[in-house]
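Posting this for the archive.
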Amino acid sequence: MVAHQAAAEYIADTSAKGRVRNGPISDWIIPTVFEENIKPESGAQVTCLLIDNQINAERQELFVRQVIRLETMEAVQHWSQWRLQFEPKRQLITLHSLKIRRGQSEINQSNLDKAHFLQREEGLEHFVIHGWFTLLMILEDVRPGDILEYAYTIESSSEIFPNLGGHFFTLPQGMTVGQYNFAVQFADVRQRKWKSSSDELVPVERHENGITFLKWRGKNIVTPKQEVNTPSWHIGYFWIQVSDFTDWQTIATGISRMWVAETNDSTIAELAKEIESKEASLHGRIERAVRLVQDECRYLSVNIEFGGQIPTPPSVVALRRYGDCKDLCFLLANLLRKMGVRAQPVLVNTFLRQSIKDFLPSPTLFNHVIVELDIDGDRRWIDATFKQQGGGVFSRYIPAYDCGLPVDATATSLIESPKIEISNLFDLHEHILLDTQNGPSLMAVTLQTEGNQADLHRAQFNTLGLEELGKQRLAAMINRNRSAKRIGALKCQDDRDANVFVLTEVFEMEFILGKHANPELRVFHLPGAWVSTVLQMPPKGQRNNPFLLPFPCAINYVTDVDNQGIKNLRLDENQTDDCTDFAVISRTDRVGYGHLTMRLALQTKADSVPADLIDEHITFLENAATICNRILNLSPTQKRPETPDGFGNLPVSIQPRPLFSAESKAPSDSISPVIRKASFIGNIQENRKISWTLFVLLLWFVMMLSKGCPNSSYH
């Protein structure tokens, strides 16, 4: 708590106060009339009466006016602390009005002598210092039913594009807006374009004295509510965009003109020379350069000079060993160039991703930078802000940004991300030595992760350390089974080059067996139901937006159960699967004398399900839950089996594993990818009549055991 308070410390700054003033509304702004007597929606906290945004491109000014009625005390609580964030380095604020209207009376609240100027670095705990200030006005005598009206103008400047600009206008989601007004005026010589989310959002256009006026206006607009689990790239709400940028090359050229490194940078040259002296191969040099920037330079974003638009010189970043995404990527790109590698920074958006293509060109569409390198036509994208990545340069994980804009004056358009497949496997194996005689059981857990999963677990291990990681994993196991106790120590193994991270541990615990209709039997639930819960169940009912899936997601889960009661079992169907265009799940069962193995595999094939296929996806999830829900009917008189050799040990060698799923060959047989409805009733049940053939096979197996053959699982 103390750390958060320190990170959010308020700091006064007189320079920020000098960038805010009171003043009248400029004469270029066109007054907007609106209706006040709008009936509030049931349960609404506020009623939005007017949203009015007007832009003067020649003066680089944005006028904002908003009128809302506060319907409840909760709304009064929130809006009585009126806030406006601004950046003093690039913005000048003129506050025109801030008032409360109650019936025929008005209470003026715009006196800046009562204003508070706060610099609260809310992103500091995430290592981001943005330099923005908050103008805070504490309103007095505010009551439910009051109308709050405020108006201000922001005058902005841009370091990279001083004469070009644009604006993105939208409406709040899940609210009825009495009236909106969005107006833009600019000189005819500008090539300003517009685009909107709907063919119906067409402006009224007029020309007067060399000025073009565009106006969008609407009344009683009901905006859709934000649906849960909607992908960030899906823009399913109302928007209007205007932009001066005629093409992507204009942006790429302007940014590359400011992103210039020193040609005779001795610091970068010495770093490149040092790397070349230690690595003979080009691939080895690239890997060492990437690790230097990723692992030896910490992330810290300081955007107080130019609004986060221009990177710090690479030599400075190399010496101070910190920077944000553009600083670190610019350093890496220049370091690779010094070693003769084709490399360039690429602008992307971590939220919009592929949806950038749907908008007009604008530099404000980007919020992140990565590096593209090219070796003999083999392109790869690298995120310099990621830490402790494994797998080498050509198999490093990177999110599916889909497209980006190179920081290169010759770039004429967005480029597609390289299409590569990287393992992202979560492979969990739980071997249970089951006691059904009221004694403790043993469970050996082996988790092997690959790709981004290995990166995440490696980072967790490096951050927490072995002891703390062990405590957290024990707490998670106790949450699953209150009687769990760790036996021995947590063991970890990491092959960073192959990007495989493995941990093993052993727990002692008591499993509670359920009652069976046959008093001579008990029910044991195999612990695989969690696999189906990895995919969230969508709310039933009509949906307008896609439903987000974890992607990439690939899970192998194996449960081995050893108990002498497992000897009279019949598997009605030892393989079953279900598959859609978006996900696939499969299960394979094997049974032997005193042993049963259940294998589950889950994989997603897309990052979302379209809205019109949600019902199909719900059916898939219901089937998946049934597939993962397995039980054993066992005798309650069997003691825990003897602990086999190697139980709970790390594997001798760690190698990447395939995903056994309906999309690939299972370790035993091929599982048809065709959707099949499994027979779930009586999949594993008692069979008291053993055939002569099975008896002979069991007799042979017992003879082998008597000769010292270990009790092992089937793979």
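Confidence is low (pLDDT under 50) at residues 1-13, 121-128, 662-715. The longest helix spans residues 452-480.
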